[in-house]
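User: Please fill in residues for this 359-position structure.
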């Protein structure tokens, strides 16, 4: 028996499959069809392919009836699961709780072994291996994850303050400019972990030290949304006097414009002397809601500064470290542009109430 006569196009296609197929089952079936189309008999194909005659006949019959679709393997999915879907869901429910909820003491979290023992003891399953349990959890989207924290805002005016800040980000005031101000630090001298391109298995090494003998510095920085540039000063302390001095620097840089300074609730920012000077010098201090530093656009710039200028370094003096920071900011300011589109796709844009809890 032989496969049906193939057209020239079908011949080219079957030849292409024998050259490019990645699946071994599909490749083997395509070779059987091509050999049969070339006039080789079932015994010849059986001898050359080291397969049974029944296999060759089945492939030929299937191709004659179904065409090229017969070449694709049809996986049956294996044995039916021995644990029902309802039981799998209960296993995942238990895994997402803490052991003490089920009277299991001595553990604050489940290991695969303790979870398997509890499931058998509670008669959820008769017995289950750790590997089977791991596969069930993984298939149901339950993974081993690190616990994270969430600091909720307790500001009763959260939404109003957030909406005002978003409005300043979205629509630049006609009578002035928006500047995001914050402190970065403390800048101490220590080896900082980082990432770099290295041969596999040969990470860069930094000295281990617990000595902090050179004190710390603090950076006061401002992000001008109109240009995207960062202005900064590095000082030994970050009291209200340093903050006021920095505001005076910003005021001198943009005379005649009202400054909308977005800042957090750090006590020096709210000092009476700072407020009095701001009122007298056409500076509007726009305070973030409490515990909402993520609304300050400059925070993302600090993350980049830490990643590119500090991580992976081991500066021995503040002069050396300050020079590294200055070099990064100069590089950045030469390539920046106006800041637009803050969190445009974020759910915060549609909030009508604030749920002060972890999500």
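Assistant: Residues filled in for all 359 positions:
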């Amino acid at each position: 028996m032989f496969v049906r006569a193939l057209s020239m196009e079908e011949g080219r296609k079957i030849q292409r499959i024998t050259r490019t197929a990645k699946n071994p089952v599909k490749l083997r079936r395509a070779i059987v069809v091509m050999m049969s189309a070339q006039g080789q008999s079932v015994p010849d194909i059986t001898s050359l392919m080291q397969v049974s005659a029944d296999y060759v006949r089945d492939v030929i019959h299937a191709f004659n009836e179904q065409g090229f679709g017969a070449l694709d393997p049809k996986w049956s999915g294996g044995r039916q699961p021995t644990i029902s879907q309802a039981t799998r869901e209960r296993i995942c429910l238990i895994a997402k709780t803490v052991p003490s909820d089920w009277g299991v003491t001595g553990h604050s979290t489940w290991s695969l072994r303790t979870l398997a023992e509890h499931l058998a003891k509670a008669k959820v399953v008769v017995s289950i291996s750790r590997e089977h349990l791991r596969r069930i959890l993984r298939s149901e989207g339950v993974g081993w994850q690190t616990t994270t924290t969430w600091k909720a805002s307790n500001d009763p005016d959260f939404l109003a303050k957030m909406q005002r800040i978003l409005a300043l980000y979205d629509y630049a005031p006609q009578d002035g400019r928006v500047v995001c101000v914050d402190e970065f630090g403390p800048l101490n001298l220590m080896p900082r972990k980082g990432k770099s391109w290295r041969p596999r298995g040969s990470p860069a090494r930094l000295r281990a030290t617990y000595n902090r003998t050179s004190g710390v510095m603090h950076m006061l920085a401002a992000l001008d949304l109109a240009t995207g540039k960062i202005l900064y000063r590095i000082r030994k302390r970050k009291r209200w006097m340093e903050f006021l001095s920095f505001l005076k620097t910003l005021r001198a840089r943009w005379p005649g414009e009202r400054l909308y300074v977005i800042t957090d609730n750090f006590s020096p920012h709210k000092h009476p002397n700072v407020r009095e000077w701001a009122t007298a010098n056409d500076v509007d201090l726009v305070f973030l809601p409490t515990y909402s530093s993520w609304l300050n656009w400059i925070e993302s710039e600090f993350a980049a500064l830490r990643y590119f200028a500090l991580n992976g370094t081991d500066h021995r003096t503040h002069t050396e470290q300050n020079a590294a920071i200055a070099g990064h900011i100069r590089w950045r300011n030469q390539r920046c542009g106006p800041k637009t589109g803050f969190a445009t796709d974020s759910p915060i844009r549609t909030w009508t109430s604030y749920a002060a809890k972890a999500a």
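For context: The beta strands are 176-187, 217-224, 230-235, 258-263, 283-287.
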